[in-house]
Amino acid sequence: MNPERPTATGPNLVQAALVQVAAASTHDGLMTAFEAASRIVDATCVVHCVYEHEGLDGARLSGHREFRETYRTEFAHDDLMHRRALEQVDDAPHIAMRMPPDVRRRHLRTLAYNEFYRPLGLNDFICAPLTPGRPGRLGSAVLLFGRDAPYTDADLEPVLWLRDVLAAALSRVRRTLLEPPSDLHAPSGALRYSAWSPDGELLWHSPTGAALVGSAQRAPSALRAALSAWGEVARGEMSAEPPPSCVRFVDERSGPVAARLHLGQLASGQPLVLVDFEAQRSPRDH
Known about the structure:
By secondary structure, the chain is an alpha+beta fold. The protein folds into two domains: 11-176, Transcription factor LuxR-like, autoinducer-binding domain (Beta-Lactamase, 2-Layer Sandwich), CATH 3.30.450; 194-285, 2-Layer Sandwich (Beta-Lactamase). Helices cover 35% and strands 21% of the residues. The chain has nine helices and ten strands. Strands 2-1-5-4-3 form a five-stranded antiparallel sheet. The longest helix has 24 residues, at 153-176. The two termini are 33 Å apart.
């Protein structure tokens, strides 16, 4: 599914969200990124649900404090809003209250609605699955953007646009829980990433980038296109599709290469496009 160009929000909010996503290396950093994304759709509540076992009562909740502290296990019995969040709708973010009329009427009579959602002023949600496969299974994650006013297609567009970027950030943070924290420099002092300006100028190479790619003139078209897409976001421009978080190509000298891209910034606030290069095993190496 290719989302249309977002029109419901200013590009500065999207850029701010992407900078927070790029900076996230811990769970707290990830929640800061999710909160930045919630401002794009004017949400009053953002909740990250990670399912530690199957079922509506199997979620570990992060985010909105009052949501976490007032949700009770007995609400799960008839929580049709939560059931709606776990539905698969073209494997894409969707609007919770777009229920069939009979289901909506049942929802408005439930204990969950009358003792939880309505008192909190949470009458609609955008539900964004962040892991592949069926939401609600063990290890899956769903992001909920809640508010009182009904959501529209225009509100949904930027979440469709951002979902893959947010999902990639969650995957990266889960990996960093098993690895040392990262910044622009590795523990050895060497640069961890290669960096480009938003206008496509190579600012510096990491040792890995220099070895695998070398001069900017040798950069393959797939990498140049990805850098251009991220450069547009860094400049506050909106493209038709989200920038790719990873591109793969075969260098004639180095063989298969994976390049993972995200936004960063210098202490001065200058935005950068950072690229983490990794050599891949070729099929004949297996």
